[in-house]
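Project standup — Tuesday

K.O.: blocked on the structure for the chain from last sprint. Re-posting the sequence here as requested.
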Amino acid sequence: VFSFDSFVHMHANVIDDYLKEMNRVLVDGGKGFIHHSHLYEGSEYSFNNNGGRSNMSPEKFKELVEKNGMKIIEQRPIQISEGNERWSAHDTISIFQKI
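H.V.: unblocked you, prediction finished:
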């Protein structure tokens, strides 16, 4: 499963639903690569946050992955639009696997 630049806008309850479905369709050992927000203490109304990002941290994403029967293989922070303060954002790439 691969997603880049969509999950940065999804709130935890929506991500939880997607992860539940990913666990359902992945074969044992199947992997996911998800680019998601890395934002702590932003507005719950994501359009008030930089780039419309939702509140999601690597720790929260890991918790949701594990809740849905999978495990994190790697999480790596990335910076989007470096040098452009208006749109600069720190996000995370999470790679996980169905156990």
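K.O.: great, moving the ticket to review. Residues 38 and 91 are 4 Å apart (CA to CA). The beta strands are 2-7, 31-37, 70-80, 89-98.
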